[in-house]
């Protein structure tokens, strides 16, 4: 073989190349203004009337626009306008319809009216539901089965249209809360407040019964007493009594607008079979629209071409300037053109892609925690030197959430039925509260990312107390300037007072066995369940774990068949009422209530205080009532208070304008990416290492040369013999 050919081959294999062979994205997207993220669990509902999960609001909050939103930078969380000109005006009225002063006593207020005025010039994303022909008739509102034959996804419709956002769109969505086919998770709560909503559900139920399964129910034809269109850009909501927390609901997707055209479009026969529904293809006025929905692989948001008129905040907290969070003050948003969410079921591949620069941000699993985070001498969390060398930074925040273990108060053992049983059960719950060491739990199973809870209210919410005044005195002592869990001997003494000395039922002489209902667990969770059994064994209680799938678990909770269970709650809005209502008697899960009080706790004094507190504006008097309510809960111990999680997230150097905000989810419009820096770092971190392969090929080629030369000599000899002959 010609040596020059061998040399060229070696150079081709071992030479420098800027190709990234492990790049999971199309090469034509290199250097584009795209945010790359991942998701583990596919969203079930993208229709705002039903969506109520954190993995769903990740998408819905970017697409839909309720009237209000939270200021991205200010703390504590502050409501500001989103699609409205000014904050809603609230007026109070008595039974006779007379308007009352704003400072009127809540008992005198029969109903409240919220008047909401929209900005003009807000338009929906392009969508076939709005498409019209030259005669101004809708193109796709009366499709035949033949016309649907070649339609398999929304993009198959060739024409799209848009129109301006109107007040009637918000009212249409409020009416949808009562639709019997939609099963909105907040219908029960809103029916207690929005006037006429409960009766409206019955009207719709009767109308729906007369329709075919896919028949369209035009909600515009059925008036709802509690809502009113004032003009094209103004509407009113009428609620019972005084409910100051209602203003927070106006920042949630449940109160986002839904145009009747979209409802009509999606209700056509044959659409649901093709998965062309509002749950699959949302229609909104927000900064982004969902252009690809393949939840087993990828979900893609792209800039809504009709979105305009919103700007990055011009003010924030004192340290936001130093943190660079106000560099884009006053600039039009969004900054990012496209957001690509890739499905990652396992944490390790996701982590590796983050380190390679293929994801712009990452959470931190237990497996990768030590690789990513180290603690300073003062106990402050920071990134490791390896992460710092890559320009990766850590952002932390205490989430407005609580994880707890609940006792079913209707259970005869842990809840009690007679007064004597209830007193015994209270002592039992108090003993367990001391025994289950959540400091240890947070350290072992959450890598220290959490704060042991002293009650239901998390940090950052009114009613949460710091330091000595904030401890749960039933479980902790204040000693040496910090909270110390009470000794296990006190728990055993309480257990004996409850009638179970050394874990033996004094009445029957048998060991006390309690049952812990959990959702189906992976092998990785076995250690946590073993740990929990160990906590109960410290006071000689046998804990039996009953694992089941999530649907069965929910059914057991609804029917009151669980004894001890675990649950959690993320704040819907930053008010203590949103946590305290989880233990309000009329909110019980069991029976006809179907509320969020999974423990079925029902204390008359607590209920009375709750009903007083929920109607009050923030004040010192309200905080005193909240303190009293928390004291009652600590004494009764319907929950093991668990812990409030801390969110840890890592961000690459090219990812800017990041401020953790677990109360607000419509934050992608504020984020910025430096795609040039990202591309540079990706190439630096992902250069293919191919010299071993090139060397191997060279060795192979060189080893064949002697054989090739011998072969050529033999061939020449044969040719010479033929010529001489």
Overview in brief:
The protein is an alpha+beta fold and 725 residues long. The protein has 20 helices and 25 strands.
Please explain how this structure is put together.
The protein has 725 residues and is an alpha+beta fold. It has 20 helices and 25 strands. The strands form 7 sheets. Strands 12, 15, 16, 17, 20, 21, 22 and 23 form an 8-stranded mixed sheet that branches. Strands 5-4-6-8-7 form a 5-stranded antiparallel sheet, with helices on one face. Strands 1-11-10-9 form a 4-stranded mixed sheet, with helices on one face. A hairpin with a 2-residue loop joins strand 7 and strand 8 (234-240). Helix 11 (419-435) runs antiparallel to helix 13. The chain is globular, with a radius of gyration of 31 Å. It starts with a helix and ends with a helix.
- Describe the global form: globular
Structural class: alpha+beta
Radius of gyration: 31 Å
**Count the strands?**
25
Proportion of strand residues = 15-25%
Poorly predicted runs of 5 or more residues: 10-16
Q: Report the biggest beta sheet as strand number plus sense, adding barrel if it closes.
A: 8 strands, mixed
Helix share of residues?
25-40%
Mean of residue pLDDT?
Answer: 92
Write the layout of secondary structure elements.
Layout: H1 3-14, E1 34-39, H2 54-63, E2 68-70, E3 79-81, E4 89-93, E5 99-100, E6 111-117, H3 167-176, H4 187-191, H5 197-209, E7 227-231, E8 234-240, H6 246-249, H7 260-266, E9 288-294, E10 298-303, E11 338-343, H8 347-355, E12 361-363, H9 369-372, E13 373-375, E14 381-383, H10 385-389, E15 393-398, E16 401-407, H11 419-435, H12 438-445, E17 450-452, E18 476-479, E19 482-485, H13 488-497, E20 513-519, H14 526-537, E21 542-548, H15 550-559, E22 564-570, H16 577-580, H17 604-613, H18 620-636, E23 639-651, E24 655-656, E25 672-673, H19 675-685, H20 691-724
Helix pairs in contact: 1-20, 11-13, 17-18
